[in-house]
Amino acid sequence: MHIRIINPNTTASMTATIGEAAQRVAAPGTRISATQPEHGPVSIEGHFDEAVSAVGVAETVLAGEREGGIDAYVIACFGDPGLAAARELTRAPVIGIAEAAFHVATMIATRFSVVTTLARTGIIAEHLLQSYGFAHHCRRVRAAEVPVLDLERDPDAAVQRIVEECLRAKAEDGIGAIVLGCGGMAHMRAQISETVGLPVVEGVTAAVKLAEGLVGLGLQTSKHGDLDFPRPKPFIGRYAHLGT
Amino acid sequence: MHIRIINPNTTASMTATIGEAAQRVAAPGTRISATQPEHGPVSIEGHFDEAVSAVGVAETVLAGEREGGIDAYVIACFGDPGLAAARELTRAPVIGIAEAAFHVATMIATRFSVVTTLARTGIIAEHLLQSYGFAHHCRRVRAAEVPVLDLERDPDAAVQRIVEECLRAKAEDGIGAIVLGCGGMAHMRAQISETVGLPVVEGVTAAVKLAEGLVGLGLQTSKHGDLDFPRPKPFIGRYAHLGT
Amino acid sequence: MHIRIINPNTTASMTATIGEAAQRVAAPGTRISATQPEHGPVSIEGHFDEAVSAVGVAETVLAGEREGGIDAYVIACFGDPGLAAARELTRAPVIGIAEAAFHVATMIATRFSVVTTLARTGIIAEHLLQSYGFAHHCRRVRAAEVPVLDLERDPDAAVQRIVEECLRAKAEDGIGAIVLGCGGMAHMRAQISETVGLPVVEGVTAAVKLAEGLVGLGLQTSKHGDLDFPRPKPFIGRYAHLGT
Amino acid sequence: MHIRIINPNTTASMTATIGEAAQRVAAPGTRISATQPEHGPVSIEGHFDEAVSAVGVAETVLAGEREGGIDAYVIACFGDPGLAAARELTRAPVIGIAEAAFHVATMIATRFSVVTTLARTGIIAEHLLQSYGFAHHCRRVRAAEVPVLDLERDPDAAVQRIVEECLRAKAEDGIGAIVLGCGGMAHMRAQISETVGLPVVEGVTAAVKLAEGLVGLGLQTSKHGDLDFPRPKPFIGRYAHLGT
Amino acid sequence: MHIRIINPNTTASMTATIGEAAQRVAAPGTRISATQPEHGPVSIEGHFDEAVSAVGVAETVLAGEREGGIDAYVIACFGDPGLAAARELTRAPVIGIAEAAFHVATMIATRFSVVTTLARTGIIAEHLLQSYGFAHHCRRVRAAEVPVLDLERDPDAAVQRIVEECLRAKAEDGIGAIVLGCGGMAHMRAQISETVGLPVVEGVTAAVKLAEGLVGLGLQTSKHGDLDFPRPKPFIGRYAHLGT
Amino acid sequence: MHIRIINPNTTASMTATIGEAAQRVAAPGTRISATQPEHGPVSIEGHFDEAVSAVGVAETVLAGEREGGIDAYVIACFGDPGLAAARELTRAPVIGIAEAAFHVATMIATRFSVVTTLARTGIIAEHLLQSYGFAHHCRRVRAAEVPVLDLERDPDAAVQRIVEECLRAKAEDGIGAIVLGCGGMAHMRAQISETVGLPVVEGVTAAVKLAEGLVGLGLQTSKHGDLDFPRPKPFIGRYAHLGT
């Protein structure tokens, strides 16, 4: 089984970190390959970054389809950018890390809080919680106020701030679990969970296991309805290669 | 990894069928053991059956805990009877097949319909959809009007009626996938999916893979909050053994 | 008119207290009889306690039906354990004290808060508020952190802590009424209301009056649909007597 | 105990009919008095009729307060016109017949449909269902297309059309009970229920019993918050008597 | 284009202020005329005031229709009193200032808070937010605790308290904009916005521009369904002139 | 006042048609300029098309900002692609035509249905209705099964099919208005409305008037919170020009 992890931003070092975190939880028979778009922002911290990254995600899926042999895709940014678009492009299951984390969190706790990087991206998590139907399971979306790339630049400081916010959530929110709200926190999960003393759910690792599950079930993205392959049509300009 | 499948009704032949369906999707390293309560109804087709079965589920989890070595539990009845109670009794993840099917269905289709056994149990699915947050993903809860044990007594007739209802759902509901609404349909999934021409999600098999995923992540039921072990207290009468 | 109050836990002294509180508000022509399951936990403080008590509730209803002459049942635990199951077993109306309190509270105030015993049982009230449709009428579910049996062991201390929590709710929540979240608080209502200076709704007393109302209207539990009598079937083991 | 039934329209014959229906279900010790505004529309079949009637309701409550000795008020039009306003004007409980019917219906059936007079007033019922929180308990709001005063002019034809619509609801909606959506149907309930073969809930009768219940509990409209007596101020023109 | 601003209370000085604020934002070709009911409360600070004012609003619309040449109506009280009723009485669009403010706020910010006059009227804003569908866009409804007429009596003190509450909202609520919750604040918008440093949306001015827009589109209130002209019928007593 | 209409697809003839429709409703002082991305799909009929077009929308806004003098932007595709992203890039208000149509429809009718091009894009409208909060105002999302470019290729046939679907909506849905679900239908509104006999709301024209309104109010996109300008960062590859 081959799961392709797509880091929607273009920071290769983060792709590597995410890929390693994914590999660490993968089943023995699972091959993990992590990649990133050729084009796009170095981090995703708002609606605009996310919109651009969505095309990168889609193109990365198309590249995977040309390459062949990929059984499932994981979109490793907590806004799940390009999720529905990506699902149109392949029969393989495509899973976003935000949805993965929410699904998993509801199976181990009755209420959870999200701890994300920046307050301004918290709204994206709120939108997803509402859209997916998990809003009433989530007590609060909190921000550690750590810019995404600081997760790499100064990981110790980042972990400390995230832990502090998690501890506030534990004390104030009446929750049973924490959801980490950024793909770049994938490798910090164990450390944070241990320090905070609560189950901590992280989306990259959650999505890998959900992807293994879907593939194991032989389930593929439905091609009946809105997730069918895109209707054939020309694309203009720099996207001409995306048309048919 | 050892996953204990609990068939909440007391029909051993159905337990066997469910266990086989579970085994068929389990990963190589996963041991499946299927069991059922010693006490309870032979099928679950309403609120009262469900209430009694919930205690059976809880006791079966307690038996599993005494036995030891169980990594996750699956509650294999589409009403998820006793789910929250069972979660209090163990650190192992506990997954209901209704929630499992709903989680999985939303990852491969934007909208689904449920096809269950009897109209009178459809309300239980509706309650769960609302409570879990999946109501807006589900177009309709439909009933094939097949009593649960008829799934075993006359499986060919049962499959035919279920397929007919699935085809109506496909034609009328604007959906991308079907969710089968009874644990006793676990072994019929492939056949129904092929005949209907839509992805068909079934809860027992879905739950096995989600359970493998949670165990693979090292995640356990949160003991912080309402899923903590029950507060110690005496139980009276026939439940004296449940007290402390 | 004969209303049977079912205390779902097995603590006889609490049954007596609840029965007296019920009697105090009953109409002249109403006979109140209070009882409790023969089997089950001495208090209900979580999902597991509740699941076991639900069977006790159902069996107590069946006993009432054999006895005959009962016009309505009240389930006197704030989680409304076994409510839907009990409704299947009788034509008489069955009312849970949580639903009763919520219904009544919305008729005298635009917003209310719940003050319950323990934080871990607050989640059960939250689930009911959502399921019944009252979530937006309730500002907050609060816990006085008084274990259920301490309501009897040290009632003065219990009242004091409950009053303190009610006063916090009055000051902070922007509410017009308090709902007491435990059947064991039935006899404390007047005292709490007077001290707090807000209308206080309590479920046992509320349910008695709603039951009188339904009986007075000649309305019975619908036997059309999911509340119809259970489908006949064998039950196994210790529940053999529940089968047909 | 004295319950004042307010028929919000100005048709005295309908007031009498409603009053009789109310009296028929009242407890022995309950005195029913039915009245109507001096000013307003002869029937309420839309938003404008309702707005005017709301003032009539409020003035009728004020008249009741001057009269004294009234323990509860019932607003006997299915749009609950002036309900919140009326609650500001008295300490006595005030109950609308739509809310009463919805509360009661949820206690005897898991799902119900509303059968009202005209399609154009169905939207008012929809708004109330959403505002009160009962939307998910109601399958459908249906109209028999009988103008309100035709309930009096040709009751046999009216009953027949209502019964036909109820039978359609029974056959198509998957419900356990019917809610009649007009105060003018109060006296038809028994006949309709018998013919249709479903529990039928009617708001006037339901509200009388809820009012008896609230009074029996000693509960009054909260004067803490938005239902407190109106802030004192002048009213101009024809409403000068309403000012202070 | 002629837009009629209806101040639902009977304080002429407030009508003038509102009219001036409306005029200030009106397009060159737009004629603004502001008026008020002949009958009703001098301010609207609760459900009762609102109910009475709704009839005044309706009559003012009827007067406008007799007068002729009015292209749109604005109801300039934040509870949108009589909105649906008014829509029945004319083909011209009718816009409430609360809905107007909510619509506009969602177009410039992802989340907003409301700052209204008194806590007891905040509930009216909550009801509208829920009914219109904007509840999840609004973080919090706050009150400056300024009675409506104090906006005129001591405007400087009023502005100061409103600004203070807005600053609290800005600091605590995670919002992008403020909605002012009273028509009497129409002329204070610019000053408050500048001081607070956030976009401030005010309903009177918002409604004028929405009204211009609807008229510019040639859209009128639908007469298909519940907003059709009232069914003809007699009105009794002081409302005889409203009947047909 | 200068309003820039962005047709998110790259079909210039459709841009022209949309621009003309916009111009026809613009106020005398309003300058309309219509444009389209240089890069992207020729029509938008699914999630993938939409994701690519979102970047085109964002770049077109950036071009507008470089150009200067633009007071508001309208995104003229019914999925509102790139709406939040675009709002980050400018202080000018940005309005999507789906939100515009929903806002306007709720001001002239209590319930509406959407008639869009293809069933597979209907889900996008459903998502927006839920996310914006308008789901309960919309009875049904219907599809005329007309591909987007057929609106230009064979407009008469297209209008006929759209009218047929609108008439079905009028007959079956209990609505007061129709919302047209595609920017390419902008010029057909008057004809469809006249034939169908219902108010028909179309998003491009609606958005122009809302944009004029926001500009007239002096309101701009909030730069406090998630709609603030993007955090500065490098973009890689073909998007390098988007970085800072």
UniProtKB/TrEMBL annotation, chains A, B, C, D, E, F:
Highest taxon listed in the record's lineage: Bacteria
GO molecular function: amino-acid racemase activity; hydantoin racemase activity
Catalytic activity: D-5-isobutylhydantoin = L-5-isobutylhydantoin; a D-5-monosubstituted hydantoin = a L-5-monosubstituted hydantoin; D-5-benzylhydantoin = L-5-benzylhydantoin
EC number from the UniProt entry: 5.1.99.5
Enzyme class: isomerase
Signal peptide residue numbers: none
Protein family (similarity comment): Belongs to the HyuE racemase family.
Protein name from the UniProt record: Hydantoin racemase
